[in-house]
Amino acid sequence: MSTTATAAEPPKRLLSLDVVRGITIAFMIMVNNNGGAGSWHFMNHAHWNGLTPTDLVFPTFVFVVGVSVVFAFESRLARGAAKASLAWHTVQRAVVLVILGIVVNSFPFFELEHMRFYGVLQRIAVCYLVVGLFYLWDQRAWTKVVALVAALVGYWVLVRWVPIPGVGVPGRDVPFMDMTQNLVSWVDRHVFPYHLYLEPPLHNVRDPEGLLSDLPAIGTALLGVLTGLWLRSRRAIPAKTIGLGVGAVVCLALGYLWSLEFPLNKNMWTSSFVLVAAGYSLCLMTLAHWAVEQKGWRKGWTWVWIVFGSNAIVAYMISELAAGFLWTIRVKPSGGIVVTSAEHLPAWQPYMFQHTFAHIPDPGWAAFAYSVTFTALCFLPVWFLYHKKIFVKV
How far apart are alpha carbons 334 and 239 in whole angstroms? Predict the structure, then answer.
């Protein structure tokens, strides 16, 4: 990880992309800390099949990573960087992201016996590594389209038609897209047994960021790369905005049509989910591009999103470590607090919530007030870094 104390930016920096990145990371922090059971439906993930706005946050960030690869790599290549050097740097960044992801998962006790090796940052690392090296090797758009189709169709074939060892063929011997009996979960249970995400009763059964579902997630990043190539083209700004909108409509139409056969599912990152999520990401990108690049609305409202997006990974790390700490501070019967994993003592987060935000009569607004407050507190250290022109590059 390196820290730069200067704000050197490429001459044609896409401010609208910074805005989208900032909105995405802010909403990610909010939904990851949504205030608990009373939170509104759209602030929670779909239980299994289906889609909520919360399900769109992570794929939008992966999509933005793909767009950023094009702009960042082309900027460095234009400054004379060698492809070999960029490739090595890409590998290093991916390794650092994996390590940070494991730290986030394990903080503060780092218990190796059930340490989770999958995770959000780990998936970002895999997608960044694959599309980054792919882009360095070949910058043509059509090769990305071929890879995208292969990833999405190949994943559908694997999940739909490949027999699950010891179980049978999906749709014949076991329901297609069964929550626990599917090829994705089977692979995770055999690669990292006892190191998966979900709590009882599904603990060590499946993981929402598992190994096999990295394949369609790479498809999400490839859609971002294709968008980046479009935005770097020599077309006029209004034409680019129209193209983004057309891309959004096409992705949404194809994704929802495919979902009739391959349901939308964020946990398994289904191929239809990739297309629908990318469609909504493109909707957000279209609006931001129209407002910022085409209409020139660059001051005032963009500031908070640019600050969040300037150190997006730092903002995410702060939010996850802070949340983990709030759940490991336990309230003793005597009234004191202690840092422990002992579950018989109430955690500080719900204890604090009950004595503050729970006084708001409506549970949804109470949860939302907690979510906004938590996100605002996470904003403060990121704002300090931005104010000091410190940008941490993983």
Answer: 66
